[in-house]
């Protein structure tokens, strides 16, 4: 019988934020696919899952070219897919870990699309606590209430797009805030959304950092895992 | 020593989507505050937590008037607060359960604000898997990727506000879709967002329902716990 492919959300950092379902899937895995490309995200996810992994688990490193329109390097993806399919068809359960939730801005989405098209493969995706949800609870910051609209915006998007989203929403979550944090903070200031903001890096992990006066912290280097929550009122 | 007040996200329905941290808090609770007002949401949350509750747990029912600007009925809130404070000061751990995440559109946000202002009270909020995240994994629907912007929109918001948010985002989650589902579906059609949509009621619960052709299902009654995911591409 073919193995199962598990896409597992491990939450934002605190190992206690793993779900029961995620723990079951991590324990069932014979092989772990570990992406080589990402900026330490992979190793953070592995650290969260490690206490539950089989001792003799096989770790397979794969390179996922994250160029826009990933079909540009279709050959690498095709090789990864063939390697995973061979493992599954040998009866092994294969797991892919994602920090936060697997259906939010993750490499897993592309892996999922590759495999979901195969009729003989059983793919199970297990949701995880997104970083923004963990941060809201951690710092006592209600994320969205009543009739409010929340936008979730990647700081990597074009400025015009970020501004359009900020203008149309009551509250916002800015994700992937690190390279252009100063520009993002300036945009929030221009939209009256800086004063009420909170920025959290490495939520629930060692070296967690919570900044409530973001305008005073322009120019400071930020960890890759940084998120801003803000609201109009 | 005073007890701890736990605001606990229990996720959308599947008991395996509880986190380890939520289970610890549920087990530690001596008293459970159960809201009387809500449309069965409270009892669904209680059902998810029940296997972990102390056998002799005390259940205190409270009415939370959910009028806009809840200060309108400040007396009921004040009574609830005094009742909770008395329990905490008697050394009891008190829990409040929320379906999904406690910082998303929940009664808990108001309870949290009441209690967080008290200097001698320890409030711990524990995030939960939001329904939209669970649905994305359940039906294999990537929620947001790359540079896309996601809007989370309550179907109860004014139409103009919903349209502004739809126009400014790539992908959208529509929550609380039940009373005005037909109008919401018409808005999605007008914005080219109906064809790619999926509607899920009672995700992970008995009587779960998944609808991929939402336009064909106008006029049908919907469960209170219904969410739509959609995307432009």
Give the strand content of chain A: 15-25%
The CATH C-level name of the largest domain in chain A is: Alpha Beta
Unreliable stretches of chain A (pLDDT < 50, length at least 5) are none
Specify the helix fraction band of chain A: 25-40%
Oligomer: homodimer
- What class do helices, strands and sheet pairing of chain A give? alpha/beta
Describe it:
Two copies of one chain form a homodimer. The first copy, chain A, has seven helices and ten strands. Chain A is an alpha/beta fold. The first copy, chain A, folds into two domains: about 120 residues, Tetrapyrrole methylase, N-terminal domain (Cobalt-precorrin-4 Transmethylase, domain 1), CATH 3.40.1010; about 100 residues, Methyltransferase, Cobalt-precorrin-4 Transmethylase, Domain 2, CATH 3.30.950. In chain A, the strands form two sheets. The first copy, chain A, has a five-stranded parallel beta sheet, with helices on both faces. The first copy, chain A, has a five-stranded mixed beta sheet with strand order 6-7-10-8-9, with helices on both faces. In chain A, strand 8 and strand 9 form a beta hairpin. The longest helix of chain A has 16 residues. The mean pLDDT of chain A is about 90. Chains A and B meet through helix 1, helix 4, strand 5, helix 5 and strand 6 of A and helix 1, helix 4, strand 5, helix 5 and strand 6 of B.
